[in-house]
Design goal:
By secondary structure, this protein is of the alpha/beta class. It has helices at about 15-20, 30-50, 60-65, 75-80, 95-105, 120, 125-135, 150-155, 165-170, 180-190, 210-220, 235, 245-255, 265-275, 295-305, 315-330; strands at about 5, 50-55, 70, 85-90, 110, 140-145, 155-160, 175-180, 195-200, 225-230, 240-245, 260-265, 280-285. The strands form 3 sheets. Strands 1-3-2-4-5 form a 5-stranded mixed sheet, with helices on both faces. The relative contact order is 0.16. It binds 1,3-dihydroxyacetonephosphate and iron/sulfur cluster.
Length: about 325
């Protein structure tokens, strides 16, 4: 079973065995060039006592070869807090690297491309959060980790798609503000009695799925089981068989082994899960996250060679932002 955080023993495999894992996703012609980067990254990790934390949306050539830990945002945050490595390379987007840094102020956290952003993180500023607090005095602000450290610093607690309901209910209050993902907030509101005020942020990848897409898949692929990330619009989630974080979707596939399945989320996720369950039929509509796709084997190698780009958070932001992240880890 693919667990929420998977320690990958893969980096110790010889290169031909690593290729065998990804051969359905990496053309044989491209492998020799990739193998040079992979060998260099494995060596650099040993020399620098570094780990690569890779999100589930990373391409299989990263996910199944050089990553030490793979998982959803919650797992990556938890593992970042646990690691005894000196250097963390975050193969994911900027908010994930910032979260790792918040939890590891003494360690070096690198992101291979500083432009690896997120449409949700871009949708709200710290000033917006202060305004919300002024408008709703006393109402706790639950902030999705897909935000900047400055926004987290204005918040009471963070959440991820994997623990949002638990966090909202753990506060023991009748109403909360949940920012910035409108659809995540509405999807959680449908599962709880707590009243939720939402913001208008959207994920540019998940907002593109429609109920008609789901109906078409059910017609074209009889018997298909449809799993959706909760960043999808509620009208899409209503048409699906299951909704959960990227890790929850992978766990669902591992436990239920649906003969035919579609994951309504970023494309590489299906590729990565399919490597683990080659006997299952994955229907693969492809919505790419352009930010996640900025990370490559080449720039992971460059990050380790040059120790760039180092992620830092000013102390006055880091302290309150860390409190919001740590409170999330305590509650859920
Ligand atoms: P997860 O926490 O479910 O991995 O989601 C992160 C993300 O960015 C989804 O778009
Ligand atoms: Fe952000 Fe959406 Fe990309 Fe996830 S998939 S990093 S939420 S833009």
């Amino acid at each position: 079973m693919l667990q929420t955080a998977t320690p990958a023993a893969r980096p110790n495999l010889p290169l031909p065995d690593l290729y065998h894992r990804v051969e359905k996703h990496v053309p044989a012609l491209e492998w020799p060039a990739l193998a040079v980067d992979i060998a260099a990254i494995l060596k650099l990790k040993r020399e620098k006592n570094a780990v690569v934390l890779a999100h589930n949306y990373q391409t299989p050539d990263i996910f199944h070869t050089v990553a030490d830990i793979v998982g959803d945002s919650l797992a990556l945050a938890r593992e970042a807090a646990r690691t005894d490595a000196d250097v963390i390379v975050l193969a994911g987007v900027h908010f994930m690297a910032e979260t790792a840094k918040l939890l590891n102020p003494q360690k070096t956290v690198l992101i291979p491309d500083l432009k690896a952003g997120c449409s949700l993180a871009e949708s709200i500023t710290a000033a917006d959060v202060r305004l919300l607090r002024a408008r709703h005095p006393g109402v706790p602000i639950v902030t999705y980790v897909n935000t900047s450290a400055a926004v987290k610093a204005e918040s009471d607690v963070c959440c991820t798609s994997g623990n949002a309901k638990k966090i909202v209910e753990a506060l023991g209050v009748p109403e909360v503000i949940m920012i910035p993902d409108e659809y995540l907030a509405r999807n959680i509101a449908a599962q709880t009695k707590v009243k939720i005020f939402a913001w208008k942020g959207h994920c540019e990848v998940h907002e593109r799925f429609t109920p008609a897409d789901v109906q078409e898949m059910r017609t074209n692929y009889p018997g298909v089981i449809v799993l959706a990330h909760p960043e999808c619009p509620p009208e899409v989630v209503a048409e699906c068989d299951f909704t959960g974080s990227t890790a929850a979707m992978a766990d669902y596939v591992g436990q239920k082994r649906p003969a035919r399945v579609v994951l309504l989320t970023e494309c590489s996720m299906s590729d990565n899960v399919a490597v683990q369950y080659p006997d299952l039929d994955f229907v693969r509509p492809c919505n790419l996250c352009p930010h996640m796709k900025r990370i490559t084997l080449g720039n992971i190698r460059h990050a380790l060679e040059t120790m760039t780009h180092e992620v830092t958070v000013p102390a006055e932001i880091a302290a309150p932002a860390r409190r919001a992240v740590e409170r999330m880890l305590e509650l859920g």
